[in-house]
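Fold it.
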Amino acid sequence: MLFNITPELAGVLATVSGWYPVLKVIYAAIGTVFSVMLAYKTAYRIIGLFFTRKFKPAKKQHKYAIVIAARNEEKVIGNLLDSIAKQDYPKELITTFVVADNSTDKTAEVARKHGAVCYERYDNEHRTKGFALQFLFERIEEDYGRQSFEGYFVFDADNLLKSDYISRMNDSFDAGEKLITSYRNTKNFDETWVASTYALHWLRSIRFNHRARSVLRLATNIQGTGFLFANEIVKDGWKYTSLTEDRALTADAVAQGYAITYNDAAEFYDEQPTSLKIALRQRLRWSKGHLLAFAETGPYLFINIFFGKRFLKTRWRDNEKKKGKRSFKDLCLSLVESIRHRFASYDTLMQLTPFSVINIIRWLLVSVLAYGFYCGVHGINGTYFFSKSTYLGQLLHFLFPFKITTESGVGVIFIGMLLQIWLRLLYRLGMYIENMWAAVYLFIIEHKRMKKMPLYKKALYTITWPTFDIIGRYTQYIALFKKVDWKPIPHESKVTIDDLNGKAET
């Protein structure tokens, strides 16, 4: 029975509470559909445990340009350029370009001193890394011609390359690959717990995504730096200028039919943020860019799943028209390529789809709002205070098997809502604790390539590791409503490639 409410409000409550059983079924059905849609990723984890694509030694050494966007990076860019100079690849086949983007320090001076071709750019209206790269490729076109280089490497100023990095990537390029990413290690893994969460995230991406996709000849995702692409990608210039140019490039390349492979043998090092404030700022930008990439390219990927390349105005379509009659073998290969492209489009769409946003909306509407109204009309009949949806919940349920039972009423609406919020928080806490296994797995499986560190630090980083996903989830909620501007991430690490190789600093 309802108390202290008007007949009109009572009618609304009764109507919504009547919908709740049906909404609950729909809610569960959507969750099941999402689980089925993402179930294939379990196969990725199994494949990534045992396999990755390997490339034969290249028959030809190709001509490359290295492009670096740097803003106030005088402290680190010299170390990157030194590691490039120490590559075992012919020096005459590598040209390094730097754009000192709105820099107020000696970035340009240091870059030129270390042998790079450096252009300076000043434009506070267009501040993303993508705009800096767009400017740089325009200058390359004017002075060299973009097609004079067969491929382009993209690095950040804080990166360091192992001496055989370009040679290993050349193996992939010589095998005919157009877009290749590489093994991303961390030079300041154990500097702070914040840095460790990023380091583990990159390793998780390798084991859970890159390795399997490379074996299956699908399209993995570009992650900001440490990748190589063929000159045809920038035939008409660089057009990815959003907050997250890497996501935009990935989505557009897959939509256009390109595969994106991974080379596990090509290893570089990256500097991770050490401050929680900087990390939150960067993750908010990533989240906003993620949403923008989904809005911009999601529809094209969705169409590709059903129609393949049929409606794409790409070089692929032009080449197909020129072939004319094709043999049975060509038709079979074309069918395989169509399947590959459609699944790669589906896979990339699953990466971009903001499931956390969709889930929080349906949870608020059904589990909180509709359930609260249902409780207001029917009361709460023996709902456990600790749910058994996670191992943590099962333990607490065993120790404290409390039930909540109330009569109907206005106040019960809010009790029901608060109960659902509590159960959600408990579920998330339990899931994050269970996800610590990923850190343990990575510390074991990647120990040979990790920086050596004490056991107590590994234990600490295992405990703090889930915060990476927690931050990602909530910054995506905020990014829905907040305008986000691009801001540079400071880099100050003095680590050199010789330090990482265990050599005396020269």
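DSSP finds 18 helices and ten strands in the chain.
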